[in-house]
Please model this.
Amino acid sequence: MTERPVTEADLQAYVDDRLAPPDQCRVEAYLAEHPEAQQRIDALIVQRHALRAALAPIADEPVPSRLDIRHFASRRRPAVQRPTWQALAASVALLAIGAMAGWQIRDHAGGRANGIGALAQEAADSYAVYASDRQHPVEIAEPAVLSQWISRRIHRLVGVPSLDAVGFRLLGGRVVATPHGPAGFYVYEGAQGMRLGVLVRPMTIDKTAKMAEHDFGGVSGFAWADRGLGYSVIGTASASAIHPLAGRIRQQSTAMSTIG
Amino acid sequence: MHDVMPILEPLIPGLRRYARALVRNAALADDLVQDCLERAIARWHQRRSGCSTRAWLYAILNHTAIDEARRATRRGRHLSIDDAMPADLSSPATQEQSMFAHDILAAVDLLPQDQRSVLLLVGVEELSYAEAAEVIGVPIGTIMSRLSRARDRLRGLLDNQAARPALRSVQ
Model:
């Protein structure tokens, strides 16, 4: 009976203690006949254990609070010199955590899978992906073109709300995917680059619903539905700061749908 | 995304260990892990199903470390291992043990980056060879040969060190 010859990969797997018993026997038989190889492999096994032991204390340390992902949403990175893309990654993560917390709240509270709860969640998701994008937050900047595009895709005539009077400039928007079909998503920018997202789509469940506040941890906002069209306004600003903006958008959308 | 935390959290100690072994500076290592976690959360939905999440995370950390090392080189910053040791090895070990830990880690520092990563991922982080191949982005055969070279080289370095105990390395 001829056995498969021992390879260098077998020897390394032997050092790592990852061989199946028959292979292990095969390697041991080989090593027994090759004292130099045996010496080398013994040294490598000792080395592997030494390296693990040298680094083991690090994994036993308590995880510093800045790496506790449950705290990501509530803390900011200390102001050391960091390239801006890292700050960007951080903001994306904060928003993602917000969205994630939202999912959890939704799962626990139930009843958010549909209606304006779902709408708010979709707004938070789109906000996390697009509003945090410093380079390409929007696809179309021109309000008339944007309004036309979104209206065509959601089969509803929608205008683009203006928030210039309250200090939020329209950056533009895009069509986004939701579990309930296409939606329009607008992004506005206020002082200090603070961004606001507005999601609009047709509603099948809560065709008309009073304005409700939604909090997703890092992001919060308000959602409502009016005659089958749902709106959700979302941002990292405080709910009390977003509320008047939501009121303004509702006013404009009501006026628009009355005309339409 | 509600599944992020239970998957990520148990991996953090290992990620910290790997980062510390790579950069040998506690604050810098935790910066890398923090960036890694932030990137992972931001890209959570981009994970390909069927791939190991652990490998995916170590891959992000590895890229983060390589990016950071390039940037540090551009800035002309040099991290001497004497900056990092032995305080960073916050081990309540005996003097003798920490001296030995110091020596083996100092020797690991002298390995080329590609060998060091494989040695740590397989030998310490216990990634499978396939996972290590995924992290580094090379075939398993390459992982095996790098592992072999890394271990032999480390053995040589440790033998030299034993012969010349005053040897100190600066990266």
